[in-house]
């Protein structure tokens, strides 16, 4: 049987398939002839060939029907990092992931692909060309990251080739692209409120990013297969990035200028902004029972804006045959084009 025919028979489930990354993945899987089920707390769209199961992943009974017959499950669900809700992160990312694992085993699923995050090793200080050998952050930068670490550990520890259940975690970083609800919208909102005039820290800090549609074309090709999980390479996590480190402020400036806004140009000292962000965050936590406000400059965002954090995806290239399919240049062009409603004056 050729691989094209084999793929037509593939059934898979995308948990969190209504989200930004999940929906791109669903579209790529459909293109490749997969029969796709989506499990999510909401139905984000309608597409022929996709069956939606609406429910909370913490509910095993709700999850089980969505996993029946699936040979591979992609777990891309998480509360938004912006929610800053420790109890919610723990319930969904940790307890919910335990439930996902249990339900996968019960339903006879053979492979589980978790979307983890490269920030599981980030402590707010410089990371340069890091491989996956870097240990998990001892002091994670926020609650979101704390639970992403626990989630990744749970999934990788559950890998059991003897019982035919294989797990793998991919660690993208700074995902962007059409329909992204975070990076470009936050940037534009800040620019419209006059907050994107400043460069935090130094201008040379480099980052790696992951362009969503291209990232998922690769993933949807089904390269994360059992044969990659050999005894010499068990329980792996893989950085997945554009593989083109870029200066953080240059990247933001290119998006802003592409959408008609001015690039940031005034410098502010990193420590000052980080300290202020920490104060604001504390204030938001203390005042939460009385009023809700979400500062734009959170300690996490400031730390990401003012440090190097670029990751090597050599392991994914070597062991999984990963190749970024689109250059960063092209990814930025396609992203800018996809947001006509966010252009200056629109
Ligand atoms: N956006 C980024 O820059 C990065 C994201 N990631 C990870 O990638 C994954 C996908 O992220 P995005 O697509 O950006 O987020 P998103 O917020 O667009 O999508 C997450 C989806 O999960 C669903 N969901 C949340 N709680 C649920 C629950 N209890 N039960 C069922 N579904 C639930 C949401 O309804 C949403 O559709 C997440 O695991 C995130 O941690 C990792 C690195 C970077
Ligand atoms: C307000 C400005 C100082 C910064 C604006 C850009 C940021 C909104 C984004 C730049 C890097 C992004 C990023 C994430 C969210 C959006 C940014 C902070 C994540 C925290 C999303 C979830 C992850 O798992 C890690 C990401 C790292 C990079």
Automatic annotation (TrEMBL):
InterPro entries: 3Beta_OHSteriod_DH/Estase, Lipid_A_modif_metabolic_enz, NAD(P)-bd_dom_sf. It is an enzyme of class 1 (oxidoreductase). This is Sterol-4-alpha-carboxylate 3-dehydrogenase, decarboxylating. It comes from the Eukaryota. Keywords: Acetylation, Cholesterol biosynthesis, Cholesterol metabolism, Endoplasmic reticulum, Lipid biosynthesis, Lipid droplet, Lipid metabolism, Membrane, NAD, Oxidoreductase, Steroid biosynthesis, Steroid metabolism, Sterol biosynthesis, Sterol metabolism, Transmembrane, Transmembrane helix. Homodimer. It catalyses: 4beta-methylzymosterol-4alpha-carboxylate + NADP(+) = 3-dehydro-4-methylzymosterol + CO2 + NADPH; 4alpha-carboxyzymosterol + NAD(+) = zymosterone + CO2 + NADH; 4alpha-carboxy-4beta-methyl-5alpha-cholest-8-en-3beta-ol + NAD(+) = 4alpha-methyl-5alpha-cholest-8-en-3-one + CO2 + NADH; 4alpha-carboxy-5alpha-cholest-8-ene-3beta-ol + NAD(+) = 5alpha-cholest-8-en-3-one + CO2 + NADH.
